[in-house]
Amino acid sequence: MVGGQAGTRRRALMLFPLFVMKVLLLMTPYHWGDLLIAEESGFRQFLLKRYAWMEVRLLAVFYWLLRRPFMSNPLINRFFYYAMAKFAGEHMVASQVMTREEMLEFIAGISEKDRIAVGPCRCRLATHACDHPLETDIVIMTGTQIWLDLFPKDYRIISKEEAQEIVKESYELGLVPMLDRHMYYQGSTNYFVICNCCKCACLPIWAYRTFKGSGYHFIPSVYRSVVDLDKCEGCGTCVEVCAFEERKLSGNKAQVLDCQGCGLCVRFCPNQANSMVKR
User: Fold this and answer.
1) Domain limits, the chain
2) Do 99 and 276 touch, CB atoms closer than 8 A?
3) Res 3 pLDDT > 60
4) Which pTM does this prediction carry?
5) Which of 27, 145, 197, 268 has the fewest CB within 10 Å, making it most exposed?
6) Cβ neighbours of residue 261 under 8 Å, at least 6 residues apart?
7) Residue pLDDT, tens place only, 218-237
């Protein structure tokens, strides 16, 4: 009898951590999770400030790493994806690709009380990989004050109209509008920066191309591209402008792979053979 009671206690002790974990997971979206990841969370903003302070140095290291030949090895690729890129890309700084029109609408909807600032693209500062314009990093919401405090000589306050003009000009240069969220979890917003990304230097785009096979992904975009094969002449313009390498020519016609939804193929196709449709 005593042995049976001892066995029951041991089983209960073994199951207790699982019970606690389950309760905490159920509570996360509603209670202590808000303390960690909510828009106004002091702890989250502390983490964002630490990230901002180290950002350029981190991006430089990641850029070097992603371009190493050993990343083509499936086992090594998967190791680095789960050890580093999965959390960084899905939660720490989670990106969503947008069309130009979506981004302009988003900027128009930013509250008048929320300041906007612009400064040099952190990826281009870190990589020196191209000569695209530097002043394209548009910080918003809680990101604005953090970047202004840390880099007062680099960032300046701008209006919503100027932010929209930067997006328009960047788009004409083939740069991808991306909206980034910090500590993204179960649909949380926590927007902090609007990026205008190139395929040369953008670390999230490099990570996408490097780790796609291992599972790396962005927050799903609203739209995707489709091709009118009757209009397509197989010129390859869309293949060239696709930063995500999700286009190819097949039988002298453009083929859409896993479109990420920026719409640059629509803007630059000389034959108007592309259009965007809702997913």
Assistant:
1) 39-214, 223-278
2) yes
3) no
4) 0.85
5) 27
6) 97, 98, 99, 221, 222, 223, 224, 225, 276, 279
7) 999 999 999 999 999 999 99
